[in-house]
Amino acid sequence: MTDKLAFKTAMQFEYGLPTEMAAGVVRIVANNPGPFTFKGTNTYLVGTHRLTLIDPGPDDAGHRAAIIAAAQGRPIDHIVVTHTHRDHVDGLAALVALTGARTAGYGRPASDAGIQAGPSPSGDAFTAAFAPDVALTAGDRLECTDHALVALHTPGHAPDHLCFSVEAGRGAEVLISGDHVMAWNTSVVAPPEGRMADYLASLEQLIGRPETVYLPGHGGRVEEPQRLVRAYLLHRRWREQAIAATIKDAPRGSPATIRTIVPVVYPELDARLLTAATLSVQAHVEHLMERGLVSLPSPPASGDEIWDRALCHASAPNDRP
Question: Which of 6, 292, 246, 270 is nearest to 121 (CA)?
């Protein structure tokens, strides 16, 4: 068995130019590429006569101008947020000022936005407070002039993460999947706000859904989404088994730590992704600990870095991810 995945990194786009992704759905890619944003953050305009904007992206004048140009004079009634990572929401205030749109999303209080006390995958603070005009959670429906969005609460990557099923004319064929499911890479699950148990449950809730195309927060269209979701679940299962085996096989008297596990399960890691990989291993270890499969040999010393705490193997992982 292998946990390697075949990612889809091809993407046809030009910065500043809208691309039709599905009937009534247009994408504009922000010019903020990077190891965690791929080519940039995707902003979507949904609708025909009156529009809904999904994920305003970075606070960038060029990206705002491209969004307004793509609207072609049509009113933008709502600005919807999949989650409050800053590459998705930093441009929100300026777009609200330009359009007068109402905001919608799960919401995040200022106190919760400070949850990222440890290092983030990018090394920067990456959450923002958000008090939407329209609060949405699982099953809530945002009715618009010629379309509707139905929210799915999909925590894991972020506790406030929402996906949106787009209903436009022919029913629900498109899911705006945010950073939950992408074709170019798996989602980063970074504690303390990222939680592996939530992420796996959020993947499970997509199994059997009717949408045939996912439009993610970064990268191109997700074709055959059901196949990809199942592959991601299997990938996480294999990754967790590899982590548990590394802990079990650690030399006697020298239990494994998160830092020593990382190079074993990520043997060809890009140095830029070291923090993200370490946080991912931490998330898997926490999931193993929650299920009683891994434990700490003794209480951690005061100020002890969690990545350096010794981990003891308790029992073999079960067959579920």
Answer: 270
